[in-house]
């Protein structure tokens, strides 16, 4: 679900950039390739790059029931993992002013649209990874790191900074769907107090 979420966001942002005349310059790639000197680094030239920064488990939802009743049977499963995903969006355009304009347009787009659901989002359903994607809902909010945190982020990615924004994507649910056990539903308790021996 992580790839699917980021790919859907990439498609939505890329469509917006095309509509406003900036072209198809959004890529889903690791920004650390930017100064790596590898052959892949050239793919980031003139692009707005979306990179996974961090995953964080949403601990407030860990205590959800690990069973459900379906067709008069109780099915036991491990509870799903709920994640918050931190997304770094960096502008590596030809000029600094174009990079700044691109980041401004990224913020403008996500300010206008914070909630993405299967009902309000048109995406490329022919992508083979989306064959199991039925319902989704994720919410984006701008995350503002401190100067120290931002320095650590760019230090991890290789040094020099690009104009960028960090977004927190709330509540991506990952569940394998593997059933651990199944049993009948307890519908009543029989007997009475006279049946108990003292």
TrEMBL record:
Residues 6-186 form the Pvc16 N-terminal domain. InterPro entries: Pvc16_N. Pfam families: Pvc16_N. This is DUF4255 domain-containing protein.
């Amino acid at each position: 679900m992580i790839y699917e979420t980021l790919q859907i966001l990439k498609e939505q942002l890329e469509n917006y950039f095309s509509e406003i005349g900036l072209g198809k310059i959004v890529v889903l790639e690791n920004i650390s390739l930017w100064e790596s000197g590898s052959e892949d680094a050239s793919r980031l030239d003139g692009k707005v790059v979306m990179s996974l920064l961090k995953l964080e488990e949403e601990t407030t939802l860990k205590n959800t029931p690990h069973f459900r009743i379906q067709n008069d049977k109780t099915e036991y499963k491990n509870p799903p993992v709920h994640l918050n995903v931190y997304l770094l969006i960096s502008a590596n355009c030809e000029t600094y002013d174009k990079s700044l304009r691109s980041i401004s347009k990224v913020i403008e787009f996500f300010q206008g649209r914070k909630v993405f659901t299967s009902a309000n989002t048109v995406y490329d359903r022919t992508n083979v990874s989306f064959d199991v994607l039925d319902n989704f809902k994720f919410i984006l909010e701008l995350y503002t790191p401190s100067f120290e945190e931002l320095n650590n982020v760019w230090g991890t990615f290789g040094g020099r900074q690009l104009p960028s924004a960090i977004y927190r994507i709330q509540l991506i649910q990952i569940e394998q769907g593997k059933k651990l056990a199944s049993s009948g539903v307890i519908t009543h308790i029989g007997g009475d107090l006279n049946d108990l021996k003292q």
